[in-house]
């Protein structure tokens, strides 16, 4: 079992905890959840690389996103390995509404676009971390240990994103944008959802 990670900053950052109904549904469809997890890791790496390509003059961003992209791709490889060991084919699954629901409210022009993108990235990483911790006690020991092993890097990723946002804009402005995206995120997590995905809402019965 990986060393314990203090999740207090993550819990305090998020607007709500994962509903128990999501945990129950997720445990019941682990193959689909693992495929979606692999997709999430791949998309996280792609997002980091996209930021590196767009903002080449921001050295702090380049360094943090380079490390983040490498870690996310490593996690992607680890998920694929676990799937292969369990006979789970890497099939196509639809994306949840979660990430797009957050990104729909991102400003279209810089510098506000970058700040919003970083705030959204922080929320996604924090939610991922919280869900790994929520799932770990309810799955088999191998998968649970894997989820726990991801907590340290995922919690650091959320801090990297919000630190970068605060370096670009006054803290009050970042907090104002964060309040907006927290409200959206809470709605996505607590409202009924037709699909069970890693960042989906409460399963519609």
Structure description:
It comes from Candidatus Paraluminiphilus aquimaris. Pfam families: MiaE. This is tRNA-(Ms[2]io[6]A)-hydroxylase. With 205 residues, the protein is an all-alpha fold. It has a single domain, classed as Ferritin (Up-down Bundle). 70% of the residues lie in helices and 2% in strands. The protein contains eight helices and two strands. It has a two-stranded parallel sheet. The radius of gyration is 16 Å and the shape is globular. The termini are far apart. The mean pLDDT is 95.
Features of this protein?
205 residues; mainly alpha; Ferritin; two-stranded parallel sheet; 2 strands; 70% helix; globular; Ferritin-like_SF; tRNA-(Ms[2]io[6]A)-hydroxylase; tRNA-Hydrxlase_MiaE; Ferritin-like
């Amino acid at each position: 079992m990986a060393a314990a990670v203090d999740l207090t900053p993550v819990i305090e950052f998020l607007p709500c905890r994962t509903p128990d109904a999501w945990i129950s549904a997720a445990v019941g469809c682990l193959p689909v959840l693992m495929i979606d997890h692999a997709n999430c890791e791949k998309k996280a790496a792609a997002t980091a690389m996209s930021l590196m390509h767009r903002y080449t003059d921001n050295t702090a961003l380049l360094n943090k996103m380079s490390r983040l992209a490498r870690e996310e791709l490593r996690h992607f490889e680890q998920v694929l390995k676990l799937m292969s060991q369990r006979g789970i084919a890497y099939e196509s699954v639809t994306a949840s509404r979660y990430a797009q629901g957050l990104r729909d409210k991102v400003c279209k022009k810089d510098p506000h676009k970058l700040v919003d993108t970083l705030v959204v990235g922080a929320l996604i990483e924090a939610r991922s971390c919280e869900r790994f911790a929520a799932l770990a006690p309810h799955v088999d020991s191998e998968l649970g240990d894997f989820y726990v092993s991801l907590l340290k890097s995922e919690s650091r990723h959320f801090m990297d994103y919000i630190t970068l946002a605060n370096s670009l804009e006054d803290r009050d402005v970042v907090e104002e944008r964060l309040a907006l995206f927290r409200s959206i995120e809470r709605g996505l997590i607590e409202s009924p959802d037709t699909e069970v995905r890693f960042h989906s809402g409460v399963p519609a019965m």
